[in-house]
Specification:
The protein is mainly α. The chain is built from 14 helices and no strands.
Length: 335
Amino acid sequence: MKNKILTFLKYLIGLLIAGSLLYYVFKDWDLNDLLERFKQVDYSWVLLSVFLSIISHAIRAYRWNLLLNPLGYNNLTTFRTFLAVMIGYFVNLLAPRAGEITRCGIMKKNDGVNMSVSLGSVVAERMVDLAGLMVIILIGLTLQFDRLSGFMFDFFNEKSDAIQISSTTIQVLVALGVVIVITALVLWWIRARIKRLPIYFKLRSFAIELYDGFTSVLKLKNKIGFWGSTVLIWVFYFAMAYVVVFALPSTSHLGLLAGLSILIMGGLGMSAPVQGGFGTYHILVGSVLGLYGVVEKDGYFFATLIHSSQTISILFFGGLSFIISMRLKKKKINV
């Protein structure tokens, strides 16, 4: 019961943050003005962006199969794994990170992939994605250091100044640290008794399988395919964001470096612990466009256009993937 309450509070806080940020973005907007802007959009570029995003998701499914291959799952198909990936994205719109567990559950149901092993591989995949984002940020800073570094410092410094850490908060954090240390010492002291409990062996088996999945990146049979697909994912992420600049008169002049900044800020916005990057994506992407002469409202509308189109596509293709997945026959995998 306690875990359910904590989970509910976590999601509620995420929703409140997203709602507050969206209110900040749209509080001064007139509905007629917003609708008029949508009428001016060249939607052929938006549809191209959606198409490129679907390709990136298919590549991600292919790459996930490469992670699972050295663990004995060598006859997985990209199509079936793609369905699981899209369902995961769909669930992430409702509950941050819950989609990762859901897509592993779909792979268990449809292809018999061990749940803890697939979870470990997803953790490995996310670590690779994080490293990729760090590389993209480094490239962006190298190519336009003065512009981006100044923006990132001013933006995040301004937000951090708004957060005041009280002495009470510090005391709570210290007390929490002490409790964790004491709990760890007590568990170490009674470890012999714990090892005699049936649940110990289940947890130990789960941890081993999770570790096997996590270290699958070190056992790759197709290293070129894995790292090549990782690069392609980021190439398509860049392309799907950049092509949308041509859909609006206010952003059609933006060059490739602006597209790189959109990719970086969009990646940071989507990494935030809020449902689907709502609010965080809009503020980060909309704000960074100011560095390239785009006025604030135009920047926020551009971010809204990308985020909305991607959200709608995930809702559609994720929902369709769920329907197809429920009708698939479970495939037997020999591990």
